[in-house]
Please model this.
Amino acid sequence: MQETHAVEHPHPTAATYIRVAVILTILTVIEVGVFYVPVFHPVLAPVLLSLSAVKFAIVVMFYMHLKMDSRFFTLLFGGPLLLAAVVMLGLLFLFGVFAFEH
Amino acid sequence: MSHAAPAATAHYTSMGLDSRKMGFWAFIGSECLLFGSLISTYLVYQGRSVSGPTPSEILNIPVTSISTFDLLMSSLWMVLALAAVQRGDMKWAKVWLLGVAIGGSIFLGFQVYEFTSFVREGLTMQANLFGCTFFILTGTHGAHVTVGVLWMLTLWYRAMRGKLGPEHAMTVEIAGLYWHFVDVVWIVIFTLVYLLHK
Model:
């Protein structure tokens, strides 16, 4: 029986990889910079979590090739990742981490 | 970019996907749950230590920023190693694979320095909740980096002996998936543990 293989999309070029590394470095510098600048302290958590999420997504899409690989790999990774996030948020609610301080 | 021919050992699923790659993505999914539980535990107990040292007293952000940058750069070298293997440029593949192993070793060196300085300052696993959850979380991540470094060294050794070529591109790609996963876990840990500490 003839075996059929899924079509593999070409991976990014070395130039793309280097551009991604430059973006990741800039985002890391911004993260550390925001941490040290007092004016950002009221919005520190949302800003840092957003920057972290962007870095996470960039590495997964371009370095782990999920952007161009089979959607099934995205499901295999995204499903447990979503479950882990839901469990984490559930535990934080249960233990009162999000409770308002009086 | 040219793509290497599948190795003789390649098996494909009924979906036409490489079975090794699919299995490894499933493994990475399970690792998400492992690190999710460890990060949750750290966050649940954050700020609940009844004695010091506390994170704000002890964490060294400048040093950890440098080790974070080092790990990010090792991820770049990993993809450059894969690209070199795929195009059959084994000279540069060896350079980048060794670079990843050295980058990972430098990260581990920073972690050893951090752990020993924390212990000298009184933060042990028994000291308080912060110490216990911090060492378990970052120590588990460090163990993963150690496995990654050993993996890269075996690939480099195989390349040096001429036993790694374009036909083994998938082997390098899977090692890369592991390395990048270790990197993304650190991206999360760096933000939640170091930059958003209480």
